[in-house]
Design a protein that fits this description.
Length: 138
Amino acid sequence: MGNDFIVMIHCLTYLAIHHDNRYSSKELAFNACSNPAIVRKLMSLAVKKGWVSTAAGKQGGYQWISDPSKIKLGDIFILVSEDARLEKTFKEASDPSCLVSSRMGKIMGKLQEEQIQEQIRFYNQKTIQDMIDKVQEQ
């Protein structure tokens, strides 16, 4: 799980709580202890999913437009980590005569995918609304 996942959940939760307002990437980045470029990248994904809207200009920014109870954290996990999953392919060793070297990459790749699927199952039980509730109960 990467920082993008945490920043995305933070920004979406913040926008959902403050749904009547628009916030710039700079404001969201400050709030999430991140970088405006990272926030713009993540919010572009949220816009494509229809979770937030965006408007350009001085009064522009990102605004919440969705139902927080319908957005599963598992969907966010998949959305922000798909590229990383594709990059993490394990390489086979250069010694094809070694049983361990010739099979370890495939074995580790399968284990990693099982672990990712468990994370997705876990996060699919939680929504942005759950995050809002947890923030507001503190």
